[in-house]
């Protein structure tokens, strides 16, 4: 009996391993030494100029090897005119390795520049800067400035939005569903907005080899699934503890919005860092108006619980304060890769929150999610966001 | 979940910040064109000051003239036999760290400067060791069958003998004339053909300057411009000449893609003979403008010693390599370095 048990176990293991062995043989056949099946062409070198900073009498370009083969940085130019430069730590870049190219150059503020880097085979890569502005030095003053902007953009508008709470509290269940759907609509718009922003950054500054769109999709799905799992845990725990379900949902909404606002902060910080003053002012005004609607999103679920001012304020902080961190990060250490990651996490988080809200509406009786209040709420939510977004 | 976010965050942090390499304590200093001094722990990228292992020697090319193997025909005509071999597989460092596939006549860009006297019989034994068809098309006067256009010479050892009487007097380009023509020219298949008048020009320190460009990334725009192929070479290695000595420069513009090129001389003016066909100068100027394959002869003398720039006054070209320096040395012994004409 024991013997046959063992042999059947071995059979299972073997039957699992056999196809696997064939997979290995197949891969060896396709990619292994001597296999010329996939010799489809010449690998082309590629570099990406990820970032250009303007310092005192010097332009600094961060260059990364984003191609399939090692490259050698051989020359730098400004506006297609060859310039002496230094490259640190050295000019030989393995895959994904980066280097700093320092070009001594008396640049003029607010003028556009094209920075070019030529590699060993003579190929030139370039990055266009719309307006040169001194690189932001991380000073206390500037950090405070960003914190104030982050407060105006993130925290204050959300707090103002939360003032809708007493109003939402007093309305009927149908109207309440309208506001919940409105929240879902607002959030859906924000998620699309985040994705669009991430795609823009990816197109402008991320090398093709990072597969920007797939990176965005992957991070969205990962953060969505992760939050879905942990959110359910939070809610189920909330049922058995003193943390009320509305609070749990509002908390999730706050986290989702917080990640989104982090992205907005990044955008503001980066645009200040890049010297686009007019653009950053637009962003600040637009985001501030826009974000009052995010307060409604948090207020709507909270309205069915007890009025807890402190919790509400905490939610407002969770949702709003990341704008400050975003502005710091965007202004001082901007990287296209991280901003894409954060924007994508934000989008994933928001999708998860939408699922939770819709589930809640169904649990409360609107099982088809097609009542007039839900449909109109969702539609108006998106419309309001669209109209306020025009301001940006 | 939190873990996932942390992992993503961690990876992204690693991606933003450049890999921290082994600390390099050695500090290098270099001076930029504008005089700024830069100290770096990394490497210096500068075509002006970085030593390169350039194979082609612009100094040697500058004053090198090929007069051919001499013989005399039964009728008493001087016969000059030259051998020119075409190749198209040479990867050459054309600026520090930048490697480009040059197509060459006798292994160099430009090919050899061949020189004859008006009326000589020129016989060019052409061997094509390249992988593509090539020819030599000489500017000048010759029979149709010697034009290097309708007689493509196959690669891997194809041969042809160009035979014609040298003329007219002047400085002429020669180049491959196989389609697509632009590709064959910009890769480097060209050179200079000088026809001296029977009554010799006055003795001088003579040199050849071919204004050319290199499109290293094949986008039909030149990445480099140069006089004699190597960007910034004569700025790094000034051409030494003497005071009060006649300098004669044979200038040929072989730049493609750009409609014009030009040559400006500092601290002096030159007598200019367009195409060199006339023995009387047409201009006395410090600035000539040349279209594709336009060429001429410049003559000047420096009175004061020192460094004098010469460059394209199309400044883009000079900032991409077409710039050089004459280092004029005080030499009381006038006419000390004059070259003799070939016999």
TrEMBL record, chain B:
Domain spans labelled Plastocyanin-like: 101-199, 220-330
Database matches in InterPro entries: Cu-oxidase-like_N, Cu-oxidase_C, Cu-oxidase_fam, Cupredoxin, NO2-reductase_Cu
Pfam family, one: Cu-oxidase_3
Known EC number: 1.7.2.1
Cofactor(s) demanded: Cu(+); Cu(2+)
Keyword list, A-Z: Copper, Metal-binding, Oxidoreductase, Repeat
SUPFAM superfamilies: Cupredoxins (SSF49503)
Catalytic activity line of the entry: nitric oxide + Fe(III)-[cytochrome c] + H2O = Fe(II)-[cytochrome c] + nitrite + 2 H(+)
Binding site for Cu cation: 134, 139, 175-176, 184
Group of enzyme by EC: oxidoreductase
Gene Ontology molecular function, alphabetical: copper ion binding; nitrite reductase (NO-forming) activity
Quaternary organization: Homotrimer.
Protein name: Copper-containing nitrite reductase
Organism this protein belongs to: Nitrosarchaeum koreense MY1
